[in-house]
Amino acid sequence: MIRLLGAHRGMAALLALLMLAGSLLLAGLPRALEASLDKSAETMLRTSPPLTTALTVGLDGTYSQTAPRSVDAITQANASWRSTMPPTVRGILDGVPRFGYETRSKMQFGRHRYLTLGWYNDIDTRIRYVAGRPPGPIDGPKRFEISLSAKPAAELGIKLGDTVPFEGYQAVVSGLWEPLAPDDVYWTAYHSGAAKIVITRPPLAQEDDLRIFGLASGDALASGELWLNYSWTFQVNPAAVTARNGQDVLDALAEADHVVRSGPRGVSVSTGLPFQGENTTLSTGLGQLIKEFLDRLATTRALMAVLLGGFAVACLGTIALAVRLLGSRMHGALSLMRARGASLPRVTTVGGGVVALAIAPAALVGAAFSLLVSGPSLPILLLGPVALAVIAIAYACGATAHAHQQPLNERRDDVVTRRPSPRRIALEVLVVLLGVGGVQLLRSRGLGDDPFMMAVPALLTVAAALVALRVYPLPLRLLLHLAARRRDAAPYLGLAMAARAATGATLPVLTLLPALAIGAYGAVTADGLATAQRLAAWQQVGAEIRVERSEGIPADLVERVRKTPGVDQVVPAAVGKTHAEVGFTGRDTAVVAVDLNAYRNLVAGSPLEIPPAPASGALVSSDMAAMASFDVTWPEQLTVQPKGKIAALPGVDTTDLGLIVLPALPQHTNTLLISGDAAAVKAAVPAGTVIRTVDGTLTEITSVPLTSSLMTGLRVVTLALAAYALAAVAIMLVSGAAERSRALILLHAIGLTRRQAKGMTVLEIGPVLILAVLAGLALGLGLPTLLGNGIDLSAYAGLRFGDYPIDPVTPALLAGGVAVVALAGVYLGGSRAKSR
Fold it and tell me: Is the Cβ–Cβ distance between 548 and 674 less than 8 Å?
């Protein structure tokens, strides 16, 4: 075996290289994908609102007989809640205690002025007193000491030492404080209303309500007579949720909800009675976030399984071609062994052993290199290289045994075409039926976690290759018939050689067609995702540049922006929310006042579609279109007359809201829709103005770790498939080089020219190559339609395939490039064969 390996070290090196690259991709790409999945989960949790990812246990103390009545009691309850959470939930929580209580409702102390009292366990470490001192214990049953944030207190005219009466109680201002870090998430998310005045306007009200927070003594507030709401907030450690424990966490959250509703096991923190939990609730958005992440995770894994499945088919086919070529090179030596009396198992062992010596170390090295890829250690990923090596070695042993199972003098080496056996026909029919049936199942059920569903696209490509092989002789016969009428014999001889080689084209077509089909599908998917992401960016922003100011944009600023060099067009708009007087209870709606015709001109040439403006009245969502008219209070008190329907408008969030599009109201402008240079716009507007651009939003969408890794994986697999397709063509060319050289040398003796030799070589290999390229490209372009919603990538951009046209340019260029390079190699190979 060692001698044979050394004698054919070139082919052995090629086999090792093919196996090394295949093993590295099959083991390394999923590892990198898992790392991106983990990073995506961490990024999702880290960038989501803290109270959305946190688990907040709430207790309405109004009717509870066991509510905590002191700081020590609520502190003990915090430990009790944490300890009774399911182990999986406890494992993802950080160790920071966050708990406190507030008065159940706001209490009025003046006209449209309200006060909320509260206490939080860690607020003392996050504030600095600028006057007075912290609030002390209760001074009488109806009297509290409180401290206020200095800035909102000054805005409301409340000073140190003032007494604030509210609903039969009195609150004495003992101190004024300010946050140590006002921009910290503690103040912007967890307690957003504690250091500022909260302004709200009830429906149909003409004046805003102003609410201020008062910090009270924890024990004084808990032991008083005010109704309180208690909360214990447990924040999630973003790095603790991964792609592998996401489902366990989701299941544990349901168990945690049951635990909270039934109350923690143990003893009440206040009365010694069992904690009933009749008024306890668990509030969190973590479950929904993880569910969305798991949906995206499943789609990502399934898509990569489809692509890697197609790559595995192409890789195996290319390796099988190389093994067959090596077997033909070793055929003489193994036949001599057989003639000298070596048994068939002995010959099979030698032939398979040579292949194993080339393949096994390469598979191990490829698997070892994959460990250098950043990602979690998953032993299951090593099954890919192992399976690839085992199948290749098994094929080598089977091919060797088949080639030498008959004595040398009983084998035929002529041009007789063998009929396919009934077993082969039955197997081909089974593969085709499985491919077609699998596609129907996949369209109706989706990929899911079913391994068969993930293998359906690769199985479909194999089925298409088998059908193409059965159809292939028909056009070849027609070409032969046409070539026979020509006076030049070279084309006929080339096509005759192609027809003779048709019986051996099974493995090349089974390699090339899946490689090109899955490669084309990968290119279509990558282009489709890029198109969808860019369209999503346009829909989120609504224009090339979007400028927003909550306090409004005056007319002089609009003109200044319009006259700024680099700014092409400016369309003012008023965007907000209101309560429309529709139906019995009314309808919360989004309102946009904009000149739709000017807006259409602004986004002309972009992916956005803006409806034309009606001659009069407004466009409204379908749930309000039946009304003859109705009133709204924003942007001013007016009566809306529906004159058409509109479902959505780019840049406007209508989640759980209706939509009203009014004619432009310049006096209420708070948004500018602009086309031009973003840097020039930024320089023209005041500081603090919100500026959003399509390019910036697109960067945010594509920079998500999971999305960027998926796009990278799609491109890597597509290029790898193209490379293996070229390698397969090269092996095909080399495989028939010896026989082709003999034929061309004989023909050269009777006058064959160099050009004719090249043409004959192209006509011999070109038909099967063109068949594989055209069939693979057609199947790859058709896979998104064939698979339908079975592979739903809308989670990456909000759009499904079919919502926008598929661009065939990239996959066509890819397939065409493979064909041109391959035919160029065949053409040059014909010249070299003639020279030999």
Answer: no
Residues pairing with 578 in the sheet: 589
Contact of 453 with 438, CB cutoff 8 Å: yes
The predicted-structure confidence for 761-787, as pLDDT tens digits, reads as follows: 777 777 888 888 888 888 888 888 777
- Number of neighbouring beta carbons within 10 Å of residue 313: 26
Tell me, letter by letter, the H, E, C secondary structure of 355-371.
Answer: HHHHHHHHHHHHHHHHC
Closest CA to 101 of 116, 115, 129, 120: 120
Best CA proximity match to 154, nearest among 212, 237, 93, 81: 212
Q: Which residue intervals of 372-505 are DSSP H helices?
A: 383-403, 422-445, 451-471, 473-483, 489-501
Structural domain includes residue 234:
no
DSSP state of 235: -
In three-state secondary structure terms, 580 is: strand
CA dihedral 67, 71, 76, 79 (to 10 degrees): 110
> What confidence tens digit (pLDDT) does each residue in 361-399 have?
999 999 999 888 888 877 878 888 999 999 999 999 988
Say if residue 507 is in the same domain as residue 635. no
Q: Tell me which residue range forms the domain holding 405.
A: 1-47+294-409
Q: Which residue has the tokens 């921009």?
A: 183
Instruction: Please indicate, yes or no, if residue 231 is contained in any of the structural domains.
Output: no
CA 408 to chain centroid = 58
Query: Which amino acid is located at 599 in the chain?
Result: Y
DSSP string over 409-428: GG---SSPPPPPPHHHHHHH
pTM assigned to the model: 0.75
Number of domains in the chain: 5
Dist. CA 359–CA 596, nearest whole Å: 66
